[in-house]
Amino acid sequence: MSVLSKLNIAAAIDNANVDPVLTARARLLGHLGEQLKAAEAMVSGTEYRVKRQRWETNEETGEKVRKEIEVPLRKWYWRDAVGQVRFCLKVGNKRLPLKGDDTNIVVGDDKALPEIIRVCMKAVEAGELDKAIDQVVKARKPIGKKA
User: Would you say the pTM of this structure is higher than 0.90?
Assistant: First the structure.
């Protein structure tokens, strides 16, 4: 009996048929999870950092090596001129329109931000933002095509 006969082998799946809105929704949920961790860290008075890969050149050998570094997360929340915390959702680095063309959620107090993010996550999971996600996804330029 061959070793490969023990494996469950199947045909390749064509990714062209995958719904881009579902893909964007899944990515948005992942990013919201990261934003939630950053918001909880902000409330507790610490900084949330994420690991990224970076290429560095070894000075002695001249060889390029990948190095893992920790960097602060790019936050989707900020403090406005009045001092209130605001939050926005992003898909593909574009702000998601939530009501008409409005993209900002006025949170107010720092301590309310984690709960606001949890509510946004529930809305994304329930499909309430699929129309807005579709709008942003359709506005993107196709990869590999010249404008």
Answer: no
Taking residue 102's Cβ as centre, other Cβ atoms within 10 Å add up to 10
- Distance, in Å, from the CA atom of 33 to the CA atom of 50, rounded to the nearest integer, reads 12
List the one residue out of 73, 90, 78 whose CA is nearest residue 124. Answer: 90
For residues 29 and 128, the answer to whether their CB atoms sit within 8 Å is no
Helices (H), ranges, the chain:
20-44, 113-125, 130-139
* pLDDT value for 14: 73
Question: Can you tell me which residue has the tokens 């959620």?
Answer: 105
Cα→Cα distances 7→1, 4, 34, Å: 12, 5, 36
